[in-house]
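User: Could you walk me through two proteins back to back? I'd like the raw sequence and the structure tokens for each, with a short line separating them so I can tell where one ends and the next begins.

Assistant: Of course. Protein one, sequence then structure:
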Amino acid sequence: MIPSRSLSRRNKDKIVFGLCVACVALAVVPLASILVEVVLNGAPALSPEFLTSGPGVIGEAGGGIGNAIQGTLILMGLSSLIGIPTGVMAGIYLAEFGDVVFVGHSFLTHVNSFLSSSLRFLNNVLTQFPSIVVGILAYTTIVVALGSFSTIAGAIALSIIMLPIVTRTTEESIKLVPGSIRDAAAALGIRKWRDSKRSAKHLEERSRHGCLACHGTDHRGDGALDSDGSGKQRVLPM
């Protein structure tokens, strides 16, 4: 015979489980209905012309999102060109040379320690920066200085957002190399930079997904990329 206390606990568990399922249903059903509505109404409008043509005249039917797609690709390409190489090199420095002790050169050791700790501190600060702050920084330093919106301003803002994520991911991925491989390289007399190069090759297959995850960085930012004198936006991000 099952004790009454066990029956009470089972009943409470079933009630709580039912409440959780009801809450999930209340949250999912509206989202699913919106998704279905968007697909049903938006699918017929998709066409090669819609994806390649520019925006139409305001108030009239027609037009497309070709400029938005073009602007997004340009932004992603330029921001990756700026942020990824810089972040990868910074991550390699922090992982391979940030804690190096120069025997007999205390000054160089202190300088290297100061640079690595400062870089880690700045990287942590940039990680917590809201995207709106980065956007305002790019606007005040680039857009205002140039006198107009530009693709470079958007790319620099996105690269700043991307930089700390790329740096941290690269550093943690390189640290996955076993210490035994580093010790073996040092025992064979291999120089530090060659050891880092071989470690990167050894790590390529193991950490490819970790490093490539940086490409999916949250591109939080929008606004005109290019504008002529009339204010008409020629290239827009999605």
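----
Protein two, same layout:
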Amino acid sequence: MKNKVIVFTLILLTSGLFAEILSYDKVIKNLRGIKNYNDGNFSEADKKFQDNSIAYPDDATLQYNLGNTRYKTGNLEQAENSYKLALKDRNFKNRSKAFQNLGNVKFQSKDYQNAIKHYRNALIEDPHNQEARYNYELAARYLQRQKKQNNQKDQNDKQDQKKQNKNKQQKKDQDQNKEKQKQDQPKKDQQKQKEQKKSKAKQAKEKKKKDAEKILKALLQKEKEEMKKEKEKMNVDKTKTGKYW
């Protein structure tokens, strides 16, 4: 397991620097850049290789070395451009390594689909490139894991969207109910007032009826009492006169 980790680390760093350059000026700058690179001074190495690549833009080796330093400094987009410039030279003998490092750039960006494509091209250029083969298989496993994660994320997103839609519909229904209640409230108020008036009228009618019955009862009672008194008076008069007719 330890060996696999070490191999993986070395593969992902870069695949070496090349000093096969004919011009003396190019050779000096390139060697200095390589020394800076090997010493871990990647920013200085980048300057040397960049100066060389500007002076000799068609030199694939210079572009390749510049790509390596840019990879090391984390400038993946610029590193990718440099590797692609190097690969324009169909006679560049390290095309397999350039494709491999392009794959490394895409791997670091988690673009495993394109990483696999570049590793495949590296193997086409050199079927014996074991580092590219190892990274090809590794990227394939990462791609499968990524697809699984994306599928899970899609399912979660769909569930979240479904929940959001449900909440929106519930809120919409609630708002519509509130609006309907607001529109119906005047009608309810009118109906309530109408019922209240009707109830008051009924109560007034019942009160009037009760008052009339009370008055009638009082009159009947009074009349009854008066008849009683009249009868008693007649009885008294008969007693006095001795007449009963």
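Residues 1-15 have pLDDT under 50 and may be disordered.

Let me know if you want the two compared in more detail.
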